[in-house]
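Tutorial, part two.
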Amino acid sequence: MKKSSIILLALCFLVLLPASNASADIWARGVSETSGWFDAEKDSDNTEDDLLCWAATASNVLAWSGWDAGYLDPALSDPLTNVEDAIFDFMDAEEPLDQRGWMEYAWKFWFDGSEMDDHFTGSSHTGYYSTALFTANYYEDMTGGSDVLGDIDALLQDDYGVGIAVRGNMSHAVTVWGLETDASGDYTGIWLTDSDNNQGGSDPRPNELIKYDVALTGSTWYLQDFYGMDTNYIDEIQALQFNPVPVPGAVLLGMLGLSVAGVKLRKRNA
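Running the prediction step on this input gives:
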């Protein structure tokens, strides 16, 4: 048999082979199992932040998303090396009460200084991105259910940072960085950072990304062995989209000494 015929037969055989059974994991933009994610931690000896998991989750997403004006704010401690904890420290300092809340409250406050549902009352912060129309342009809020992991999948692939509420034996907020799928494309795991892990200590605090198996029962997705239990489930999603213009316009203009009329900001491709 001619060599060309052998090569042709080999190519035909490869075409007829079934598709690879390898899983295809989904990650947030720029994130992998070893890098790109953020993990703000509470202070274990600070009773003022026990219930601020929502603010810590919001801080992680701000640090990842390019909306981290803290890089340019001298009021925040050590922002260049530990931006998520610096943002969380700011949130903690501006929130007068240790009370439950939502990521939305922290993001809205960060953007335009809004005080929602009695959070951040009395703060003098007026916002880093007051003209960015946070709620209209960069925010998504979805409920749980059988499609919740599909919704998270779509958000991650659309360049959103995702925080979720976990309920069951607790009421907690954590940050989602990735999803694991099997050969059939079914969801089998979720990668999270949690402000209650490795609490305390001086900055930079220990960071940890943890994968939990997930199981669908009825219309609810349960985290397996989450705090030693299988009864905690994924509820509401709140998400913030990656910033297409990483530096706040007003700050950029001030740094360059240019007038608003003389500057045209180029949008970064998302």
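The CA atoms of residues 111 and 128 lie 5 Å apart. In part three we will examine how such features are distributed along the chain.
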